Q: What sequence folds into this?
């Protein structure tokens, strides 16, 4: 039994968006993902940190979900900026139930527990997004969702899973970082001790910040950065 994380699978079994066009690092990536997930067991938990499928709606993404569901580990999905199939949680859960996908669930306005740890998260925000007008509403909603997830964790040590990096070289999202730090100060030993994020690819990997910053340890878990091998977080 172990906890893993990986993001940015960009599966495209139905949508015509093969990631091989981005270079040799993505060659046979679907097969490589399948080989890695086949080594996980029914007792394992895998957090998928966004951009799971290129499907534009649930029906187009069905083949990608079916691909993931064949592997027995429990999977929690976080929303990514390219997850156009994402709908309301009630609609997505109903779709999964109708299709018989028993191993897929969502990390969205909630938390899940692994051992004594709470798994929290949301999509997050990024410098490339507009923070005015409609963009400001979306950003504020992301902060609300993240805090709802952290609150749901109660008095447990918290691991945070985001799609967008909250910081990297030359950039930070101060509102999200302040929220994580506030929980560290208020809750002391029940703090957010680790944060995992994706979104960065290729040459952007060099901008990633890994290791401890303040009271939080950060890790990039984009699939191409990990060589399509999920990162083991806990045994």
A:
């Amino acid at each position: 039994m172990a906890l893993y994380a990986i993001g940015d699978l960009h599966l495209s079994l139905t949508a015509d968006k093969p990631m091989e066009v981005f270079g040799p690092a993505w060659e046979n990536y679907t097969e490589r993902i399948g080989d890695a997930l086949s080594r996980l067991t029914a007792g394992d938990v895998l957090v998928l940190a966004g951009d799971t499928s290129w499907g534009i709606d649930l029906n187009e993404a069905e083949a990608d979900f079916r691909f993931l569901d064949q592997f027995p580990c429990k999977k929690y999905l976080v929303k990514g900026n390219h997850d156009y199939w994402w709908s309301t949680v009630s609609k997505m859960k109903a779709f999964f139930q109708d299709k018989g996908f028993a191993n897929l669930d969502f990390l969205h306005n909630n938390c899940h527990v692994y051992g004594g740890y709470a798994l929290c998260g949301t999509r997050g925000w990024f410098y490339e997004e507009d923070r005015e007008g409609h963009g400001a509403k979306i950003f504020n909603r992301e902060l609300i969702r993240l805090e709802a997830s952290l609150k749901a964790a109660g008095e447990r040590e918290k691991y945070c899973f985001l799609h967008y990096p909250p910081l990297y070289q030359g950039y930070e999202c101060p509102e999200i970082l302040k929220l994580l730090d506030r929980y560290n100060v208020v809750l002391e030993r029940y703090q957010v001790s680790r944060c995992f994020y994706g979104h960065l690819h290729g040459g952007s990997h060099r901008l990633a910040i890994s290791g401890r910053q303040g009271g939080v340890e950060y890790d990039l878990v984009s699939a191409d950065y990990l060589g399509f091998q999920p990162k083991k977080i806990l045994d």
Remarks:
- The CA atoms of residues 122 and 146 lie 6 Å apart.
